[in-house]
From TrEMBL:
This is Conjugal transfer protein. Residues 58-313 form the Bacterial type II secretion system protein E domain. Belongs to the GSP E family. It comes from Corynebacterium gerontici. InterPro entries: P-loop_NTPase, T2SS/T4SS_dom, T4SS_GSP_E_ATPase, TadA-like_ATPase. Transmembrane segments: none annotated. It holds the Pfam family T2SSE. One of its GO terms (molecular function) is ATP hydrolysis activity. PANTHER family: TWITCHING MOTILITY PROTEIN PILT (PTHR30486), TYPE IV PILUS RETRACTATION ATPASE PILT (PTHR30486:SF6). Coiled coil: none annotated. CDD domains: VirB11-like_ATPase (cd01130).
Length: 374
């Protein structure tokens, strides 16, 4: 019997009798094969069965590497991972694009999404037994000329403190004190940076400094924020189901949060029209709100907010008026080969607003900002 046919036959028997141990499965493989099989062949079959039915299959060994944040499958051309040192090639390989496609389809179906020739790319979220979550994206061939591509992002809830970030070299003592004073002054904050630069980690550390008598409402599309705070509420958006219904946007949750007696409202990531609602919250008595935003430097943040506000129908002059009134502090994170660091602090001033740079890591100066005068 051909190997693929053998595995399919065993899978059908396992579906009928799922409560089997490893010894029983090995016996089942021998019975279905109808011939003599060596122990090595049986073990290889059992390993392939696990790959095709449990977790993320053969990518489990890559996820087990300490500090891994991303795993990337480029069809049969290789598997890569990132643990903060740039992309590294993994020893894991796939024998055919059909294997990659089968894994991609299983992962997306398990997350409630659809992946087939009619819907050739999709993304979803999977919860794992170790408490982490995976953001899964896959694209089939075609349109991918490189074969089926899978991208996994490991989402670990951010529980790091300011002290821990200081010890890891994200910033020095003067910046740590500056950030504590920033939270105490109830300044609104936008943390900017690229993907994987540590925006969410810094945000969680700042929220852990909020006074315990304040109520924090965190709005995210994936539960990444877990500040060390007794009164932090987490609200999660969700995408539409396979029937095209049931979607809850971050803008929907932001409007609901205003009725939940918040002291501080936090958006895990601002990526669309919800920036309009956040600006409204900043200007209706909710001091100390926060969010993260994709931008490279504090100077680029205004242009990014303008682009997102346009999606919500907010005209440029109205946007600048709201930004001027809110005057959020900008914290810019940066990822390099040496790690993730805070490299700029700025504030918005004037109308139309302009960025005033208060501190830059490249100057090697002490961060001694007086937030009472800002």
């Amino acid at each position: 019997m051909q190997r693929d046919a053998l595995i399919e036959a065993v899978q059908r028997k396992l579906a009928q009798t799922p409560d089997t141990n490893e010894t029983q499965r090995a016996q089942m493989v021998r019975e279905v094969s109808g011939g003599v099989m060596s122990d090595v062949e049986v073990i290889n079959i059992l390993r392939q069965l696990r790959h095709e039915s449990q977790g993320v299959g053969r990518l489990e060994s890559v996820l087990a590497i300490e500090g891994v944040t991303d795993v990337l499958v480029n069809g049969v051309h290789g598997v890569w991972f990132d643990r903060g040192r740039g992309l590294e090639r993994a020893a894991v390989t796939f024998g055919s694009d059909a294997e990659v496609r089968k894994l991609a389809t299983r992962l997306l179906v398990a997350s409630g999404r659809r992946l087939d020739d009619a819907q050739c790319f999709a993304d979803g979220r999977l919860q794992r037994q170790d408490g982490t979550a995976l953001r899964v994206h896959a694209m089939l061939s075609p349109p991918s000329e490189s074969g089926t591509c899978i991208s996994l992002r490991v989402l670990r809830q951010a529980t790091t403190s300011i002290d821990q970030l200081q010890r890891s070299g994200t910033f020095d003592t003067s910046v740590a004190d500056c950030l504590r004073n920033l939270v105490a002054a109830r300044k609104s904050v936008l943390i900017i940076g690229g993907t994987g630069s540590g925006k969410t980690t810094l945000l969680s550390a700042l929220l852990s400094q909020v006074h315990e008598h304040e109520r924090i409402i965190c709005i995210e599309d994936t539960a990444e924020l877990k500040p060390n705070h007794p009164h932090a509420i987490s609200l999660l958006s969700r995408t539409e189901n396979v029937e095209g219904k049931g979607a809850i946007s971050m803008a929907d949750l932001l409007r609901q949060s205003l009725r939940m007696r918040p002291d501080r409202i936090v958006l895990g990531e601002i990526r669309g029209a919800e920036v309009v609602d956040l600006l409204a919250a900043l200007n209706t008595g909710h001091e100390g709100c926060a969010g993260t935003l994709h931008a490279n430097t504090v100077v680029e943040a205004v242009a990014r907010v303008e682009a997102l506000a346009a999606l919500g129908g907010l005209q440029q002059h109205a946007l600048h008026s709201q930004l001027a009134a809110a005057a959020p502090v900008l914290l810019a994170m940066k990822r390099s080969s040496s790690g993730r660091t805070l490299h700029q602090i700025g504030v918005l001033r004037g109308n139309p607003v302009e960025v005033e740079l208060l501190w830059d890591a490249r100057s090697n100066g002490q961060c001694d900002v007086d937030w009472g005068q800002q």
